[in-house]
Sequence to fold (170 residues):
Amino acid sequence: MSDANILINTARVQAQRYTYAYQESMPVEQLVQSLCDTKQGYTQFGGLRPFGVSFLFAGWDKNYGFQLYMSDPSGNYSGWKAAAIGANNQAAQSMLKQDYKDDITREEAVQLAIKVLSKTMDSTSLTSEKLELAEVFISGGKVKYQVCSPEALTQMLLKSGVTQPAAEAS
Fold:
């Protein structure tokens, strides 16, 4: 976690410096490349411990629209339409490859994410206590980032059939 926190703070500072200097948001790939250059520098020079973190970066910019990038601890990064990292990522990638389509709606994308997580997480059932869902979308011409409330997430889990309704007390 400490490696991730340092890199997240570095990314925030880089994005803020860019915004201050150019009066516009930093392009997503430029931010990813900058952070990955930092990660790669730590693998190149002796005496420095590499950052042991992979990231998924999701964002939107005026040049390329919505983008998703995955980086590994060495500083390599690549663009994806759908991706997964962490435990059971091969199974998740396989499911995404099979079920993802280019014209997917926002609601279908959320349901696909829930399906992939339910099949690949080391848990018997998904609940809003074990899961957090956030979305990046455009609303009213502005880019929005929204973390789903536990109540909304519970409803999504019920809708997807991953979680069963709580039994009523007698």
